[in-house]
Amino acid sequence: MSNLDREAEPTMCGGRGFVVAEPVRELLSPRRVKLGESTEVRRLLPNLGRRMVGAWAFVDHYGPDDIADEPGMQVPPHPHMGLQTVSWLHEGEVLHRDSTGSLQTIRPRELGLMTSGRAISHSEESPRPHARLLHGAQLWVALPDSHRHTEPRFEHHADLPKVTAPGLSATLILGELDGAVSPGTTYTPIVGADLSLTRGADLSVPLEPDFEYAVLSMAGEAHVDGVPVLPGSMLYLGCGRTELPLRAESDASLMLLGGEPFDEELIMWWNFIGRSQDDITQAREDWMTGSRFGEVKGYDGGPLAAPELPAVPLRPRGRVR
C-alpha cells in the first residue's frame, strides 16, 4: 500500500536512541489519512512520539468500511524501495499486482508479503465484484542495510501457523511465537501475530525480553497489560517483558508487533526507505523517468506521480545510547 500523502514529509527513524529499554505503557493515537478516493486509514506509525517498533516502520489500520456500493480500495501503481510490505485482512479481499509479474488475491488472515529490495512497483485494488466490508492493516518492515538491495519478490501464504490457549487463537504472521514459526521471509529478528480473544479471556502471551513490542487493536474491547486499547489505537510496550497480560471485555482482535530494536538510522520519504539524501533523490528520479522499478501490467489506470522533494535536506537522525 502506498503513502498517498501529496505533502510527504521525511521521517527520520531508527537508532536505539528511540527505544525504551524497559516496560512502558505508551498509548499512541492515530492520524487520519485519505487513501485514494474512498478509503480513510488510521496511521499509527510513524507517530509523533514513536517512529518504529523493532523493524516495523509503518502501520495503517483501515475499516471496517461498507464498500458494497463503492469501488473500495483503488491504489494505482506506485514504487517501493528498502522495505517489505505486509498486507493483512480481517474482512474483504485485495487484488495485488506487481512488477515481478505477481497477480494474487489476498483474503482474510492470509499473508501477502512483498519484499521491495532495490526496487519494485505494485498496485492494490478491491476485486470486482467484492465483499461488502473491507477491514485490515497495511504494514512496512524496514530492511537492514545488508539486504536492502536484494532482488524484489512477492510471497503469498494462505496457511499460517496457529498458537492457541483458552480464550485465544493466534495466527502467526511473521517471525516466531511460542514455538511456532511463520513461513514468511524475514531479515531481522521480528514477530507479528494476529490475536483473536473470546469474551472473558484472561491470559498472558510469552514475549522475548530483548524485543520491543506494541499492540494494535483491530476490533472489540481488550485490556493490554491493564490498559484499555480501543480499535484503531496502538499501545507501545517498550522492552524487558517476558509475558504480556491480556483481558477481553468482548470478543476482540489485536495485532502483536515486535522485534529486536533496529540499530540503523533511516530516512523514510513517501514510499522509499533509504540511508541518505542521494538514495531518496535517485529513487524519485528513477520512478518518474520510468526506470528501475519495472511496470505493473493489467491495472486499469496510470501510475502515481511522486510528490516534490522537500526544500530542506534529508538526513538520517536518531540518538545513539
From TrEMBL:
Xref: InterPro entries: Pirin, Pirin_C_dom, Pirin_N_dom, RmlC-like_jellyroll, RmlC_Cupin_sf
UniProt-listed CDD domains: cupin_pirin_C
Pfam family, one: Pirin
Domain Pirin C-terminal, chain residue ranges per copy: 193-292
Domain Pirin N-terminal: 41-141
Family membership: Belongs to the pirin family.
Protein name in UniProt: Pirin family protein
Upper lineage: Bacteria, Bacillati, Actinomycetota, Actinomycetes, Kitasatosporales
